[in-house]
């Protein structure tokens, strides 16, 4: 590392400390959703392979959760694999699934996070399904941040699954369709979402400069604030995270609940 890079790093750390010092912890969101975008473009820009980009993105996760644990964040949803990602070439998808499985096992072994899967589990390979089940079971009593790992996740798929679950539940209870139609409301559908009994995300962060949700938590983000960051996910820094929190706090104070 040359002198210029050292000075730049020092200035960034000092700036991050200043931002953190002015952060109002009473305005920190309880639930943050993260669309971790840009692994492939980061890899291309750095002259490395796509797989290396995904590994670098995976390594960023625990660091990010550590930043969240320094605030009053209670729930974090990490979008690791969408339903659309299954259309990727096998030479990319197979290593990516292995990397994500390692992420799940690492989070469970850490001991600080309570892991919960959100997504269509039946779409995933058997080893991934086992890893998710084991992670949920071994971390069920952990009192730290609840980490939703969105794997095989799509917003439309979640709503379809919620409606299907609601209909099956009504059938099992012997509820007539006419009675069900009369009783359906927002709260009922919400109880059948992957994130049932969790607060909706107040803040959604998307990295890499893309300014769209791509189907992320379509139901739950109706009133969320969005923060779009130009930095690729593997290069996401604590100062970028703090800027997102500062931006959210300013908007929250201006517009209220």
UniProtKB/TrEMBL annotation:
Leader sequence segment: none
Entry annotated with the keyword GTP-binding: no
Amino acids binding Mg(2+): 37, 225
Annotated positions binding substrate: 38-42, 54, 82-84, 86, 88, 206, 212-214
Molecular-function annotations in GO: transferase activity
E.C. number(s) listed in UniProt: 2.5.1.-
Cofactor note: Binds 2 magnesium ions per subunit.
Keywords: Magnesium, Metal-binding, Transferase
EC class name: transferase
SUBUNIT field: Homodimer.
Similarity remark: Belongs to the UPP synthase family. Z-FPP synthase subfamily.
Name of the molecule in the record: Isoprenyl transferase
